[in-house]
Amino acid sequence: MQAQRIARELALLSLSQLSRNPEKLAASEMQDVVLAAIRTLTGEVHESLETAAAELKRGSERLLNSETRSPDLDSARAMVKEAIELTQTAINRMGAAIQLPEFINLANQKQVRAYSLEILSKVNANRKQIDEILNQSLIDWQLNRLPKIDRDILRIAVAEIMYMGVPERVAINEAVELSKIYSGEDGYRFINGVLRRVSERLKQELPKV
To answer: Fewest 10 Å CB contacts: which of 3, 13, 110, 171?
Structure first.
């Protein structure tokens, strides 16, 4: 289970970095997957810190120019709060990047590599069908409007359920745990809700014996 959990996390973080070509993907070594994951985390950290810095600057300017007007003060507080939350997200992802190689070193690397590449290959090969059922299960949202990390968490969970024989409960719980680490503050609730609807839809579509 530990190896699969690490593999799932690596697959999530490397999905946008590694080739979709089946042959190239199958030839990927462990270090290729880890490097891709760390690149993703590094990019996320930079983006979060840049956004946080911009929000903090806007909030500071609003405070200086507010002349104690209540609406401006409230707006400035909200900006500073957002900056703090983004900085905390960046710190968490830096921690994940530091811990990832250690976790992998403690796990069975052959199992981690094999399961990571299996997830990636299933997502890539069946992306159209996966995205279709996700779009059908979203309420007042479109998949392409979701944050990239949320889209990929959902895709991996659906791939595990539909194409890898993972029990729905396990796949949903694992997706929720990933979203608690990498998604927004309430992202895990959203992920859980979407996957519950996916599960119900799949049950309805199963042929009746």
So the answer is: 110
